[in-house]
Design a protein that fits this description.
Elements: E1 3-6, E2 28-31, H1 40-49, H2 67-81
Length: 97
């Protein structure tokens, strides 16, 4: 699991790969999961839909955050975002047997 933040303001570029990560002139950068633009919950829902049952690994890269704090926070965020799919359709949960 990894996240990124896009910062296109008319002066930055998505193609700023020649600039170091963390440079404010970049048009995008990696950030700690949950602090970026990616919809990680939507990704979990897709993984649930296809029946994925493997591990979720955090690849942590955030030049603007202390790595001990960020990596720990990222793991907790992903654990909180990783939910099991429902075993029944919503309405079926209320059927009398």
């Amino acid at each position: 699991m990894k996240d990124s933040k896009v910062n296109l303001n008319g002066f930055t570029s998505i193609l700023g790969s020649h600039l170091n990560f963390g440079d404010p002139r970049r048009g995008w950068d990696f950030v700690s999961p949950g602090h970026g633009d990616l919809d990680l919950e939507a990704m979990i829902r897709v993984l649930n839909r296809i029946g994925y049952q493997g591990p979720l690994s955090v690849e942590w890269e955030d030049s603007g955050m202390d790595r001990e704090h960020g990596a720990s926070e990222a793991v907790e965020f992903i654990k909180g975002t990783d939910f099991k799919p429902s075993s029944v359709a919503f309405d079926a949960a209320f059927e009398k047997k």
